[in-house]
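To: structure desk
From: M.T.
Subject: fold request, one chain
Message: Could you run this one when you get a chance? Sequence is below, nothing fancy, just the single chain.
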Amino acid sequence: MPFLLAHAVDLVVFFQLRDRLPHRLASHFGSGGRPDDTAGQTEYVLVTTGLLIGMGLIWMLIARGVRGLIATGWALAGFVGAVMAAVLYANLRTPVEFPFWRVAVAVGVAALAGGAGWWVARFVPSVLPPPAEGPVERIDLAAGETAGWARHAGARPLLVLAAGVVVTGVVVLTLSGWQDAVAPVVIGLVLMVFARPYVTVDRRGLTVSTGRLPWPRIRVPLDEVEQATSRDINALKDFGGWGYRFRAGRSGLILRSGEAIVVRRRNGRDFAVTIDGSADAAALLNTLAERRANG
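Reply: Done. Structure tokens follow.
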């Protein structure tokens, strides 16, 4: 809704100013607010439509039921809509300039829109997910016996993407110098580090880490585990995409669709990690959590 509203406002402003606007609009501004690129009026409408409607569709997928993300979507729509409208007003003057205060106004609009989104989100029900599906298995451990489980949650497409980004950086290095190559090389290396997170189940609970760095690290302590199950996850349908995802009543590290360990916390929220061998991990986690609860 906020992206549709922003688009409608921009179209109203465009058609009201259309007769006063130049045929070619200053569409991009460099240092000092001076224009360095132009676009036709039709191009402006098409870009504004594609940008706001496209962002709205993406946000609709990722923000369902999450109050903070809903408010952020409103703020983002307000900011983009205000900037696009400000570009039109800037083109009414000669010479065309885009001073910083116009950006500050857009930030103010974003703050107001974000507040409105936060208020609207109060009326969106935050529905907790149904209880975890599948049998709640356990592993028999003798008194005093302990056990642990560990495995990499590999995502081959992400590794391929990371390698491709690094290779791109190397090619850019040879063609245009290190200044342009730093970003892709660094991004590719970071993707490689996070492409194979390490998942462990032991006396500390469920832990997800990079396996190489001490941070970031996600942990669900045994005291917070109500039950754990293994089930199939559809990345797009259940979490709206891939990566570290949030949904109403659930979160998870979703690197692919398929087998996952799903932990129901005692606060009613679920945490999921897509990984092979999740049935053994869930069974051991249930055993260790039950042992901790029983002292």
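Reply (cont.): The chain is about 50% helix and 20% strand. Let me know if you need anything else for the meeting.
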